[in-house]
Design a protein that fits this description.
Length: 872
């Protein structure tokens, strides 16, 4: 080993301008050891260099040549290559690679400067001016890769490329690229190009433009959003979702987009997301749509049936706010989903779940709780709407205060006495609620209402400023208190568990109603009196249960035994009669016309929390559940080990008897059955039986059916069969696990234009089907018995490693037609993706074809073809 210290010092101390006879001194280092050294001279910073094979130092010409895995480090710059040369006269570093006997490249130069990296065939770099020339380079810029024949690097970090390619494909020979003769790149910011065109699979296409701009930020940045194009039958050609993306700061962004149609319709959307790390996250979206040609009764025949454009102007708002920590104390959460009646049906045809849904709800909630305290406070503002009926319900506020289960007797004793008295527990729940609804019940409105003949009529008002006072004046508000008293189960007769309990409920009302029947009008006059009123109820209950085991020993080759578990439960509850206290009996009808004058029991108070029990309840309820298991020899073990196999998961029966009722004391009998056949087929069935007879006119008769030799009458029944298969399920042999098997099953909630978001190529195939059958007996109707059957099937299959098909369909046997059907094809193109979605028939008939780059930078480089549901 030869030290370079003396030679380097002598070199550095040479007198400037002194001429000497040219002499060359070369020192070759031992190739068996890598030695790190440094040279200080006119260079500002120390240069460190290493080589695996040898370092040759030319002192006279101030050259350092390094061979085999050479590495040079100078400040933030580093260079690795097979062969490098450092020239101290010109401050140039030159690096080249080599090839082995088979022609494979070895030691390709890799240049790094801060966070930027370049891989090239040859690199020449001035370490003083920080300028360089790189040949046949590949460098990563943001999410993309820049290929160039020659790149010049300036002192300001700008890169100028000749015969360049820009792509998001990470292969040495990319599947596609943007071909440009000249490119300027500012690392970490953007790339500019002159005229360019798109090349697919080495085939040039005419797709391109006169200039190109591609942002390549290290952080999020604002930029344009390119719209998609298409055509809708009623609105014409369109450009949709075009606009601008704003990065307001590191925690908040905003997306402003718009739609424009050739026939005059337009739309606007504003979306924003925010995130505060370790605290909360949320989003808000506001959409507005103006329809130029809405459907009316006059032009519906011209535009065709099934048209969904019903509103000239519509809007929709969605928002959410979620805490991201579980710290004790107060926390806010919100979920908003509201808008005009027909917005989703007119504008969300790409999402069948939203377009078909009729009910939407919103809530804003504040909750305060501490783990060390039994107290919990919750305040909410709720809203729900039905787009089919147009009814809006607002609950503002809805506040509750609860005290968790407490055992007062243990407060005064350090240790319990061991008796059941120690376990007497009490809890409290208080609720304040104010309900504002656009649906007004005329039985609780001041004035005259026609209550003759059954259910009181209702009025639905439109939610606008004109009706605001009327809606607000009929707000329903009150306060409810609930105090349940319970205790732990008490063992009686050694094998039975007894659980008694008491409950006290009190409601405070602020409106009272007086009723007066007007014979001449055959209507009821309602007078409202405001004040403070109390309504209280109390009840008692107890239940007793046990478990009965039965085992049948077989000792066979495969079956060891069968066990039967029965769990009977019997309970009793009592509620006093409050009918005279909180309701008023009123005769509605004319005696000279009707022989039997109907009597209606109308509530004295507004029934926000429900009318207190009108009649005494003395119910005896009973239930019986059965579970059957089989102990079999395990197939996966050669030893004599056994496993449990469920034959019947649940076979249950429930019913009851009301001793206080004057008729029909015995309640309907409910039967349920659930099991898993062949470890794959889920079976669920339930039925309801009526123990009473039915007259020829269809009315129930207070006489048991078994008096005529019939056990009971089947009222309704349901049968559900379901199976979901995939390779994992077959391998395990069962789907009865805590986690659902992986699936590619599409659903109505899936945006059909985003197939790639839920496709998993790791699953070669899936198959799932459901069969549903129901029976309903209504003796009072003409059809009496109604039977419906439907079959649903969906799944996926991988044609190859890069091709996948997903499907979903079904058949309704009652209406003899197909249910919602969709077919989706997905192709993995490595750096590109293609999806084809097709809904062949029905209200949402449509298809779409999308081909786009996977990178978000080049997401707008896409080919799309859409055909909406309104096409004919």
């Amino acid at each position: 080993m030869v030290s370079l210290t003396g030679l380097v010092n002598a070199w550095a101390q040479q007198t400037p301008g002194r001429t000497t006879t040219p002499q060359t001194a070369e020192i070759t280092l031992d190739s068996t050891t890598v030695k790190q050294d440094s040279i200080k001279g006119d260079i500002v910073t120390t240069i460190k260099y290493t080589a695996k094979d040898s370092i040759v130092l030319n002192v006279q010409n101030k050259l350092v040549n390094m061979y085999n895995d050479a590495n040079i480090e100078y400040g933030t710059m580093s260079l690795k290559a097979h062969t490098t040369q450092l020239d101290y006269k010109t401050n140039l570093v030159t690096a080249i690679g080599t090839k082995d006997s088979t022609g494979k490249a070895l030691g390709t130069p890799v240049f790094k400067d801060d966070a930027e990296a370049y891989e090239a065939e040859q690199i020449t770099y001035n370490i003083k001016s920080k300028k360089g020339k790189i040949r046949n380079v590949v460098t990563r810029q943001g999410e993309g890769f820049l290929h160039a024949e020659v790149i010049k690097k300036t002192q300001g970090d700008a890169l100028y490329g000749v015969h360049s390619k820009y792509t998001t494909c990470d292969l040495p020979h990319p599947h596609f690229y943007i071909n440009a003769s000249k490119i300027k790149a500012i690392p970490g910011k953007k790339i500019f190009s002159g005229p360019f065109n798109l090349v697919f699979g080495d085939i040039p296409t005419p797709l391109g433009f006169l200039f190109g701009y591609f942002p390549t930020p290290k952080k999020r940045s604002s930029g344009l959003l390119i719209p998609t194009f298409g055509e809708a039958r009623q609105r014409g050609f369109y450009l949709r979702q075009g606009g601008y993306y704003f990065v307001l700061n590191e925690n908040i962004d905003m997306r402003l987009t718009g739609d424009i149609y050739s026939l005059g319709s337009y739309g606007l959307q504003l979306q924003s997301m925010y995130l505060k790390r370790y605290k909360y996250r949320g989003n808000i979206s506001m959409s507005f749509s103006a329809n130029k040609n809405p459907v009316t009764a006059a032009n519906e025949a011209t535009l065709g049936p099934g048209n969904i454009n019903r509103e000239p102007k519509s809007f929709w708002i969605t928002a959410s706010h979620t805490p991201t920590t579980l710290r004790p104390g107060g926390k806010w959460s919100a979920s908003v989903n509201a808008g005009t009646q027909f917005y989703n049906r007119q504008n969300r045809y790409d999402n069948p779940a939203l377009a078909l849904n009729n009910t939407f709800s919103s809530s804003v909630q504040y909750q305060f709780a501490k783990p060390t305290s039994p107290l919990t406070f919750t305040a909410s503002a709720l809203h729900n709407m039905n787009t089919q009926t147009g009814v809006h319900n607002f609950t503002l506020p809805d506040a509750s205060f609860t005290v968790n289960r407490q055992t007062p007797l243990r407060w005064f004793k350090k240790t319990g006495t061991g008796t059941w008295f120690d376990d007497i527990a009490i809890s409290y729940s208080g609720n304040v609620r104010n309900l504002i609804s656009t649906q007004l019940d005329r039985s609780t409105l001041s004035g005259v209402s026609n209550l003759v003949g059954g259910t009181p009529a209702t009025t639905v008002l439109k939610l606008n400023g004109k009706n605001f006072r009327r809606i607000l004046a009929n707000a329903d508000y009150g306060i409810q208190h609930s105090i349940p008293i319970s205790m732990n189960s008490i063992r009686v007769f050694k094998y039975f568990q007894l659980s008694p309990g008491l409950s006290y409920n009190e409601t405070w009302f602020f409106k009272k109603f007086d009723y007066n029947y007007i014979r001449d009008l055959n209507a009821v006059q309602i007078d409202t009196t405001k004040g403070f009123y109390r309504a209280y109820t109390y009840s008692a209950s107890t239940s007793m249960s046990t478990r009965i085991y039965g085992t049948y020993i077989i000792k066979g080759k495969k079956i060891e035994a069968i066990r039967h578990l029965m769990t009977p439960n019997i309970s009793y509850s009592y509620n006093p009669d409050f009918s005279k206290k909180y309701t008023r009996a009123i005769q509605v009808g004319r005696p000279d016309i009707e022989n039997n004058i109907p009597i209606q029991y109308l509530p004295i108070y507004r029934n926000l929390y429900g009318v207190p029990t009108s009649f005494m309840q003395s119910n005896l309820n009973f239930s019986l559940t059965n579970n059957v298991e089989m102990k079999v020899k395990s197939k996966s073990d050669t030893a004599s080990t056994f496993e449990k196999v469920s034959l019947i998961d649940n076979l249950g029966l429930t019913s009851g008897y009301n001793f206080a009722a004057d008729s029909f004391q015995l309640q309907n009998v409910n039967v349920q059955f659930r099991t898993l056949l062949f470890k794959k087929l889920n079976v669920f069935s339930n039925a309801v039986f009526d123990p009473y007879e039915v007259s020829k006119s269809g009315r129930r008769v207070n006489r048991y059916s078994f008096n005529n030799g019939k056990l009971a009458r089947l009222v309704n029944a349901n049968l559900n069969l379901g199976m979901e298969l995939n390779p994992e399920a077959l391998k395990k042999g069962s789907q009865n696990t805590d986690q659902a098997p992986r699936t590619n099953r599409p659903s109505l909630e899936t945006n059909q234009n985003l197939v790639a978001e839920y496709v998993d190529f790791k699953i070669p195939w899936t198959l799932s089907f459901t069969f549903t059958a129901s029976y309903f007996d209504n003796p009072a109707s003409q059809t009496k018995e109604q039977i419906s059957k439907s079959l649903g099937i969906d799944g996926s299959v991988n044609l190859t490693e890069k091709w996948k098909i997903t499907y979903s369909s079904g058949y309704d046997f009652q209406y003899k037609k197909m249910t919602y059907t969709s077919l989706n094809i997905y192709r993995d193109l490595h750096c590109w993706e293609m999806s084809i979605s097709w809904v062949p028939f029905g209200e949402f008939q449509s298809y779409s074809i999308n081909i786009n780059a996977r990178s978000s930078i080049l997401r707008d480089l896409k080919l799309s073809r859409n055909r909406g549901i309104n096409w004919r």
